[in-house]
Amino acid sequence: MDLSERQLQILQAIITDYVENAEPVGSRSIAKKYDLGVSPATIRNEMSDLEDMGYLTHPHTSAGRVPSDKAYRLYVNELMKKKNLSAKDKRMINDRLSASRDEFDRTIRHAAELLSEITHLASFAMTPATNEETISFIRLLPVDERTLILMIVGESGNVTNTTLRLNVPYTQESLELLSKNMTVSYKGRTLDDVLKGEIIHDVGSDIEALSQLRGSVMPSFLRTLEDMLNVNLYMEGMTNIFNLPEYTSIDRARDFMELFARKDWFTQKMLARDDGVVVTIGEENDTMKDCTLITATYHVDGKLVGKIGVIGPTRMKYDEITSIMEYLTNNLSESFRLPGSTGDGNSGDKKQKK
Amino acid sequence: MDLSERQLQILQAIITDYVENAEPVGSRSIAKKYDLGVSPATIRNEMSDLEDMGYLTHPHTSAGRVPSDKAYRLYVNELMKKKNLSAKDKRMINDRLSASRDEFDRTIRHAAELLSEITHLASFAMTPATNEETISFIRLLPVDERTLILMIVGESGNVTNTTLRLNVPYTQESLELLSKNMTVSYKGRTLDDVLKGEIIHDVGSDIEALSQLRGSVMPSFLRTLEDMLNVNLYMEGMTNIFNLPEYTSIDRARDFMELFARKDWFTQKMLARDDGVVVTIGEENDTMKDCTLITATYHVDGKLVGKIGVIGPTRMKYDEITSIMEYLTNNLSESFRLPGSTGDGNSGDKKQKK
DNA sequence: GATTAGCACTCTCACTTGATGAGTGCTAAC
DNA sequence: GTTAGCACTCATCAAGTGAGAGTGCTAATC
Q1: Contact flag B102-A166 (C-beta cutoff 8 Å)
Q2: Which of A62, A142, B251, B330 makes a 20 to 30 Å CA pair with A248?
Q3: What confidence tens digit (pLDDT) does each residue in B141-167 have?
Q4: With an 8 Å Cβ cutoff, are B157 and A166 in contact?
């Protein structure tokens, strides 16, 4: 049972109005503001039908109507039109991103900042990495007689390091040997694979000092690998949500903030999402049932993907925000393209349900 | 004009009660709960005097009294006694810290976690570093033909790195040469010094490729140095404050959260504080005038200092919290001591005003 | 002179009441 | 199918009320 043209118009009007004012919208104000050529009474009848079909809800008898998740879904899939960014926003994005184009992390961080500034929502960005990231090399660097740095570098240029203090001094040679040794053992393997798989014991354990050093380093190696899964995640504008009427209750604000304290959990959640612009609304999320989450992917050399996203209440300007994110990710992919390559990296605008 | 013994008793009772219940305390409840041997009326008279002297305030005519910053200051300096930690807390601290004793960053992060769990306040911890940190070496590591990692290591084992993408390919040799080159130029110099000083141009610029590479790397080098000033700062339990009656107003909660979004500012603030256990109360802080901030320092090999701290409303359990922090920092300093060294690293308990 | 009992006074808080206004749902007329 | 009209519902606000907690003052007491 499809919606009639008029029903769609009314629904769109309600969504537009509610997104703007955050208050239940009544039949009379729709009739006044949006020129639909019918009286409030007619609109009331249609609204009642829309409610029966699950597109609207009713906080209480005599409040106006509020769009449901289902309504937003319909809006995102069918109704909304792409918005053009303002010249000011475009300029801002171009300027800020080009300022640090040669540094991955910084560019990504700037992207998150931009996103939260423009949308006035909470945003995040992560450097390109996946569960399938493979190890490129492992390096142990001396600091002082007992202190050393363990560094793991992924294929994508992701780096994680930790500073270790050993109980016994090490020698420069054993350090270099172990670096090479470990690189040989783990190069090309994915993080998941190494974490779940057997630890490789049998390499070069003929030398006493080496195997001792190895024993001290291994536990930290594994823990650091785990950290590496949690890539570089930048979060920005978390406090923006305090300005929204949805979060004037301290409890909801707390819940919101607590979600983001668990960075590792959050990262895994986001990594699991599909490519392209993905919108999940309210109940479609397993946690955060009153939030909408929009993620988009950018590409490096047309292959590796990183993600950016915004989080806010289901009441948000879907059209503007998805357009901004599309522009932003295209811009990012553009600047991370190898000169000469052409691939557009499958940046299709899917908007699909998760 | 000193306070009489009885006035001190009453003030202490008011503080104890207020810290516990977060509600203005009246003369009658003091007389009932604390056995001072005088009637409410006498207590009222004393309270009135204490208010004249600035130790108490009055939200409105017929509420009870609330301790002022000045009262807390007196309490911290003179009245409070050291608390013994519960066996449970001690065990928890020992267990959790020893689990990752060989890794700096992880241990520090665990310390922050512990602190916020035990105190139910917001906490932070930073790895040892100061504005006087000196550069130990600089390393450039290849990732792919245009991508490389720039890594700066400080004397204390602090590492900062960034992934760069160049416009033109580089050669392995030029990379190694530049690494050595830069290390020679900057080794032993402090971050501040390098950031403020002249950029050194004249080293090895006879080779064309090298000077080009250098030109691409330098801007990032300086930006990354700045990052390094902002050490590793771990924040934990920010959402704890939502449970406090002081922060049920969304505005105050927002202000609080926004303070910590500015990590670099916060780091600099904390680095500037004295060694030992330092308590600054309310107005004594230039920002956060309704917060109390307690920091403490731990030592590595008896020299380098790192900081941990808690932040909360001025109404907090000063005696417990300072005791916990003392125990925790002693424990940290202990595990970061070079085997054989003895220095206790000046871990005096100063409690001084900033 | 210090301490205390007594009492009037102040202020907050929770609760009630009534008026107002926005909005719906139904019915009957167009 | 559309619309006007009207009764009904519910949230919100302001004003009013009583209870409770606490102070500040005064006069009596130790």
Answers
A1: yes
A2: A62
A3: 998 888 899 999 998 888 999 999 888
A4: no
